[in-house]
Amino acid sequence: MNKLAQLDLKFVWHPFTQMCDWLRREPVVIVKGSGAELRDVRGRKFLDANSSIWTNLHGHQNQKINAAISRQLKKISHSSALGFANEPASLLAERLVKAANSKSKTQNPKLAKVFFSDDGSTAMEVALKLAYEFTQRTRYKSVGRASRRAAEPRFLSLEGAYHGDTIGAVSLGHIDLFHRAYGRMLFKTDKVMSPYCYRCPFNRAKPERAGAREYRKCNWECVGLVEKKFAAQKRKGNPYAAFVFEPLMQGAAGMIPQPKSWLKQVSEIARNHGALLIADEVMTGFGRTGNIFACQHENVQPDFLCLAKGLTGGYLPMAATLTTQKVFDAFLGEYEEFKTFFHGHSYTGNQLGATASLASLEILQSEKSIHARQNLEKNLREELKSLWRLSNVGDVRQVGLVAGIEIVKNWRTREPFELREHAGIRVCEAMAKRGVLTRPVGNVIVLMPPYCTTRAQLQKMVSALREAIEEIF
């Protein structure tokens, strides 16, 4: 075993990892990357089939981003945003606001302000705190202090929601495996049915085998439940402050896509009940679903847009929360009024992260990149068709350049594997032996290629998955 692997096993604690299992084998130690390819300390080559946990957009060692960071390094790496401004962060804020509003056709307030932080969890924390305080200052400003305490702003999110690992973000989450242990630390939020079409309790369609499943006529029961949830909370005299969602596809829930127009319908319900919209685009943002932001597909304008992961192109930890002028104005006042937003991070608006983000956005919005993503999405759809013939493939789900392949015991019954059977983990281990790296979400295998992935590399990713499933089962 090489020295780096030994050091890792001796000192490093890995996220979302049962370390008892980790310590039983030599880890893959990544030392280099180029394009969609990674290389480990032993010189072995692997394809990065999940974009380094959904962060890397343009491939490793992208020359434009490298050059931009190098130029910034000759100026300054970081200075505080507490009391000072800086050039890259100011330019990036302008670019993000323009990108977020570029396809907006609604009458809802446009996004106008950007608060920078460090990662997806902190982007969500910012949105939660702002929404909470904004609601307190606007909805309850005329009631007494006692009444205000009795009407604390409440939040609604989806079943299977995952919005990060900080306490506020965990409070919004509804994945027992991840969140149950911290229950007594959290504030209470409500949940409503997620549109998981493959396992919909109202859908009685028989499984198909000729490509994507065809479901019987949908009566949108899931949308009706959202309406009922908002109405019930309103009758209690304390309407929801905000509705929190991942647009188009829920990631950690199992790559669950939302049927067309679901997002539009539930967003209108939330608006009609006076709730703010908090869009978690940590995964879906920056071209993953086709448009720069997933909300744009259904012309949904959120009050808070939370961004991270791909913001810097996968180079540096950085996040952003975009919001409206109306929210911003609620925090304006004289110093002695103490209406300041008392929240911040040491690396807020970091120059290197902002510089990488500017370079990444320039690439993303180029005609060359748009065309490449469109071709890659089409090629991915074609390659995934070969998986339908496998008896242990229950569902193949794709939104843009995000794919989730659900592994089941029997496609006819849709019977799932128990988590203790390690079905998804074993498939990914078999893929690694074939030179393809990804990580499962339970029994769902994730394919999320960098945008620079070639057709040959894409074919290898899918063939490795296909062969791994055949080998394991």
Look up the CATH topology of the largest domain: Aspartate Aminotransferase, domain 2
Question: What's the mean pLDDT score?
Answer: 94
Based on DSSP secondary structure assignment, what is the total number of beta strands?
18
- Report the major sheet: 7 strands, mixed
Using the 3D structure, state the CATH architecture of the largest domain: 3-Layer(aba) Sandwich
Whole-number tally of structural domains? 2
Amount of beta strand: 15-25%
CATH class of the largest domain: Alpha Beta
CATH superfamily of the largest domain: Type I PLP-dependent aspartate aminotransferase-like (Major domain)
Compute the CA-based radius of gyration.
23 Å
Describe the overall structure:
The protein has helices spanning 3-11, 19-22, 51-54, 63-73, 87-101, 120-138, 145-150, 167-172, 176-179, 221-235, 262-272, 325-329, 351-364, 367-384, 423-433, 455-472, and strands spanning 30-34, 37-40, 45-48, 111-117, 155-158, 190-192, 242-245, 249-250, 256-257, 276-280, 304-307, 319-324, 393-399, 402-410, 415-416, 436-437, 440-441, 444-447. The protein is an alpha/beta fold. The chain folds into two domains: 3-62 and 369-472, Aspartate Aminotransferase, domain 1, CATH 3.90.1150.10; 87-364, Type I PLP-dependent aspartate aminotransferase-like (Major domain) (Aspartate Aminotransferase, domain 2), CATH 3.40.640. The chain has a seven-stranded mixed β-sheet, sandwiched between helices. Strands 13, 14, 15, 17 and 18 form a five-stranded antiparallel β-sheet that branches. Helix 5 runs parallel beside helix 13. The model has no long low-confidence stretch (mean pLDDT 94).
